[in-house]
């Protein structure tokens, strides 16, 4: 894969491959058809996950221990040919092995007896319709068969597509995997439920007589796919466990924007041109922000940073538009932007031709091309691109849909949430947001949009994004002394490790990065030299064990079972054979897993130095030694420990140099830190800009938010709104700010980002997760600024105890850096008591009882170890 998968993506790929492995076994062994779904919210990278799974299906994956299926044929099916072409491009971009010659769009002329293995074939609904050239004669043949008659196919079509599919499924050497993209579509329609849709025909095998062996649905929602598979009514089809991506983990990844800012008119009237001007101004400001940000970053080799992000404005018009009104809106945008011409505007409407709007003649563009055609600054759309299309550079939406069409608006917003650089911009909320301007909404009807975007709905599951009514930008508070920021820079922020990582792999990644950034010359060669010396030292130390292990590598053991004709007796005997080159290479795979492929291969080269001995025996012996050493007890642990020590030394030695890198490179080093087995400390970035809502909803009414001072990020008046705080977080903040020694405070963001302090903990399954304490408080203690963690803790949540244990472990390790680490909660059943109580995590006795408790979090707060919060 060209891309490094995010943790949640890797987990989803592992589960998907497990389902594909089971599906293959059930079909090849038992002839059983199966189905399962992969569901993830918009922006999660479903195509990237699919690319990783298909690549492993075709070619195997040693790291994930997945064996390839040499007879795999993948059919990628959607109801939109444009979506298929976009998917094809993404698969090529994501995978090094899925080249264009392996990705085939099925369109006339196409007539093959069977589909080829290790190919992905793209089909869409129209290609399987009765009038399609690909299905010529199929319907007549189907009807003739039903009458017991025979019919010859048209002369110019040796095989129609249904016959090709039948032959492919029937071939015992092939296994057909059908991917239903946006799988909630295509099963429903205006036709009677008794009349199968094309997709049902395909899945059930109505036209081929053979159902599809494996059906894999990919969508943002599982419900319709599940119902559709039931509707397909294929007897014996087994449903495998769904692969569901947690939306919160997607939000944590930085792949989707954190903030959706809604601009709603506060008064009635014709405000269309005024708000269109506002949309154009936001587009211009967005372009300037991106230009400034990218100019500050060090451009990568061969790349100019200034043209990497060109923001786009999406103009969503009503279904029955007035062309003169659209022309007026374009005139308004041009007046604000100045340089806009017809070449900078395109439409994606149903008429695939140039359209006239007022004095503007606007050409049509394929939706999938918009992202790459950066000369396009304004895109005219309706609702046809609300599914399957996305454009990360789309930063502003102005929608002239009426208020009753809030579903269409939110669906289109859902296509605009990807971050342009596929990462969160540290400390810059404005660059992590999308603006939506709604001229025809009032604040009451806009509440529907908010509920739709923040609630777990079928069309757009929540990811935890902030939706703001009155968004205002906050900047570092000028009233906060520099000593607070100096204290901030010393805070111990932690990143959680990746599952399945190894220390040697982390060390190699670090060496490659340091060398690429010209921070440590010869880093890769240094790592190889140190690892080779360590392996040689371990080989000498465990010489006896190594010799025995080498014998095992060189010996292939087996058992012979024999019996005599007409006799019930069976005899068993062991046999030994000398391993051939292939068997030794298989054993060497263990060394690659233990030491990493780079170190294992370079160690072989180090041992079998051609300047000393260039014989085949020397090379063979080197492979045997490396493979054997990987099986010697304690060697893996020792080599990992040596690698950890080097990683720790190098991160410490180059700490200042790493801080000076561009954000993208610093993110790369955070990824490397996350390859450790245990959580790692990393610098906490300072916030640069922040968007907060100066309005809030109370009893379905919009009112101004309560304001408070001393926050690190503030408006021009030094104020911060409490709109993001819940009912009992607010009294906690008021009390903390009122303390005479309080100098400043910070509302810690609840998602993983460079300016959000993280505390690691293990969930109920033992997986690493990150807790983001609600508040950081900075107080003056004996003339020195000291930080504190104050975390109002929901005791009613299932993960409340494991989070408390994580905070206790953090306090055990880093408590010396804080004045207080307080967890605040309530006592009683489900935390129902109104009294706020505190657990002092700097108290060893409190930490001990948190670690050992078998009760609930509310019981802890109500015990003698909890004190009244005052």
Write the layout of secondary structure elements.
Elements: H1 7-30, E1 34-39, H2 46-59, E2 72-78, H3 81-94, E3 103-105, E4 119-124, H4 138-146, H5 161-170, E5 175-181, H6 198-204, E6 214-219, H7 223-232, E7 238-239, E8 243-244, H8 247-253, E9 259-263, H9 272-296, E10 312-316, H10 323-337, E11 345-347, E12 355-357, E13 360-364, E14 378-381, E15 394-399, H11 406-414, E16 433-437, H12 446-454, E17 466-468, E18 471-476, H13 482-488, E19 493-495, H14 503-516, H15 523-541, H16 543-553, E20 555-563, E21 570-578, H17 581-595, H18 597-607, H19 616-629, H20 635-653, H21 655-659, H22 663-673, E22 680-682, E23 690-693, E24 695-698, E25 701-704, E26 707-708, E27 713-714, E28 720-721, H23 729-738, E29 742-747, E30 759-762, E31 768-771, E32 775-781, E33 784-792, H24 800-814, E34 820-826, E35 836-840, H25 844-852, H26 857-862, E36 867-868
Parallel strand pairs: 1-6, 1-7, 1-8, 2-4, 2-5, 3-4, 5-6, 9-16, 9-17, 10-14, 10-15, 11-13, 11-14, 15-16, 33-34
Antiparallel strand pairs: 12-13, 18-23, 18-27, 19-22, 20-21, 24-25, 26-28, 29-32, 30-31, 32-33, 34-35, 35-36
Helix pairs in contact: 1-2, 2-3, 6-7, 9-10, 11-12, 14-15, 14-20, 14-22, 15-18, 15-20, 16-19, 17-18, 17-19, 18-19, 24-25
């Amino acid at each position: 894969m060209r891309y490094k998968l995010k943790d949640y993506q890797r987990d989803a790929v592992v589960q998907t491959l497990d389902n594909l492995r089971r599906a293959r076994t059930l079909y090849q062994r038992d002839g059983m058809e199966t189905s399962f779904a992969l569901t993830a919210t918009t922006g999660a990278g479903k195509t990237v996950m699919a690319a990783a799974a298909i690549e492993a299906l075709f070619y195997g994956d040693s790291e994930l221990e997945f064996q390839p299926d040499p007879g795999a044929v993948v059919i990628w099916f959607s109801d939109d040919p444009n979506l298929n072409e976009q998917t094809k491009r993404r698969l090529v971009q994501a995978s090094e092995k899925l080249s264009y010659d392996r990705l085939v769009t099925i369109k006339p002329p196409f007539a093959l007896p069977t589909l080829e293995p290790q190919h992905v074939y793209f089909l869409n609904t129209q290609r399987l319709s009765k009038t399609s050239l690909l299905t010529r004669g199929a319907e007549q043949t189907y009807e003739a068969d039903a009458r017991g008659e025979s019919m010859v196919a048209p002369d110019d079509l040796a095989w129609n597509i249904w016959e090709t599919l039948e032959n492919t499924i029937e071939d015992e050497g092939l296994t057909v995997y059908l991917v239903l993209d946006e799988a909630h579509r295509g099963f429903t329609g205006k036709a009677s439920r008794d009349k199968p849709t094309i997709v049902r025909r395909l899945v059930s095998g109505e036209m081929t007589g053979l159902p599809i062996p494996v059906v894999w649905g990919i969508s943002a929602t599982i419900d319709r796919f599940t119902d559709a598979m039931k509707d397909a009514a294929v007897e014996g089809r087994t449903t495998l466990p769904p692969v569901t991506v947690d939306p919160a983990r997607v939000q944590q990844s930085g792949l989707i924007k954190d903030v959706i800012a809604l601009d709603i008119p506060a008064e009635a009237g014709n405000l269309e041109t005024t708000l269109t001007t506002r949309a154009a101004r936001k587009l211009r400001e967005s372009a300037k922000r991106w230009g400034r940000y990218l100019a500050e970053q060090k451009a990568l080799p061969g790349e100019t940073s200034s043209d990497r992000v060109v923001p786009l404005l999406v103009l969503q018009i009503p279904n029955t538009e007035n062309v003169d009104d659209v022309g007026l809106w374009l005139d308004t945008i041009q007046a604000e932007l100045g340089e806009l011409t017809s070449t900078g505007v395109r439409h994606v409407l149903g008429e695939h031709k140039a359209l006239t709007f007022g004095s503007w003649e606007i050409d049509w563009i394929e939706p999938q091309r918009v992202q790459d055609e950066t000369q396009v600054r304004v895109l005219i759309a309706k609702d046809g691109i609300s599914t399957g299309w996305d454009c990360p550079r789309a930063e502003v939406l102005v929608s002239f849909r009426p208020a009753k069409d809030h579903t269409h608006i939110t669906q289109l917003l859902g296509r605009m949430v990807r971050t342009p650089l596929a990462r969160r911009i540290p400390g810059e909320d404005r660059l992590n947001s999308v603006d939506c301007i709604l001229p025809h909404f009032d604040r009451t009807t806009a509440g529907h949009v908010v509920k739709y975007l923040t609630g777990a709905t079928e069309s757009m599951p929540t990811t935890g994004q902030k939706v703001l009514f009155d968004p205002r930008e906050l900047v570092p508070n000028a009233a906060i002394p520099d000593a607070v920021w100096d204290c901030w820079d010393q805070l111990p922020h932690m990143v959680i490790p990746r599952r399945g990582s190894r220390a040697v792999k982390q060390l190699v990644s670090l060496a490659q990065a340091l060398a690429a950034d010209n921070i440590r010359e010869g880093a890769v060669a240094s790592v190889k030299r140190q690892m080779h010396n360590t392996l040689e030292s371990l080989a000498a130390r465990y010489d006896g064990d190594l010799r025995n292990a080498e014998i095992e590598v060189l010996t292939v053991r087996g058992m012979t079972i024999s019996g005599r004709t007409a006799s019930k007796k069976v005899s068993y005997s062991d046999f030994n054979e000398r391993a051939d080159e292939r068997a030794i290479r298989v054993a060497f795979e263990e060394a690659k897993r233990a030491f990493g492929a780079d170190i294992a291969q370079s160690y072989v080269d180090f041992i079998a130095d051609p300047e000393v001995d260039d014989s085949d025996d020397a090379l063979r012996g080197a492979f045997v030694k490396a493979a054997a050493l990987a099986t010697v007890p304690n060697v893996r642990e020792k080599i990992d420990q040596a690698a950890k020590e080097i990683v720790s030394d190098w991160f410490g030695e180059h700490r200042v140099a790493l801080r000076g890198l561009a954000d993208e490179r610093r993110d790369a080093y955070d990824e490397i830190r996350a390859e450790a087995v245990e959580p790692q400390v990393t610098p906490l970035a300072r916030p640069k800009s922040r968007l907060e809502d100066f309005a809030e909803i109370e009893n379905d009414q919009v009112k101004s938010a309560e304001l408070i001072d001393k926050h690190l990020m503030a408006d021009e008046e030094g104020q911060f709104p409490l709109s993001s705080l819940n009912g009992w977080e607010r009294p906690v903040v008021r009390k903390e700010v009122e303390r005479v020694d309080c100098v400043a405070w910070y509302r810690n963001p609840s998602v993983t980002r460079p300016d959000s302090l993280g505390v690691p903990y293990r969930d109920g399954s033992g997986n690493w997760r990150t807790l983001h304490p609600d508040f950081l408080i900075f107080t003056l203690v004996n003339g020195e600024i000291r930080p504190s963690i104050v975390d109002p803790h929901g005791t009613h949540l299932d993960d409340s105890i494991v989070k408390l244990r994580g905070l206790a472990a953090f306090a055990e390790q880093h408590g010396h850096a804080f004045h207080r680490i307080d967890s605040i909660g309530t006592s009683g059943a489900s935390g129902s008591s109104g009294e706020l109580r505190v657990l002092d995590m700097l108290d060893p006795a409190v930490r001990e009882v948190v670690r050992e408790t078998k009760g609930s979090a509310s019981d802890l707060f109500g015990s003698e170890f909890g004190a009244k919060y005052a």
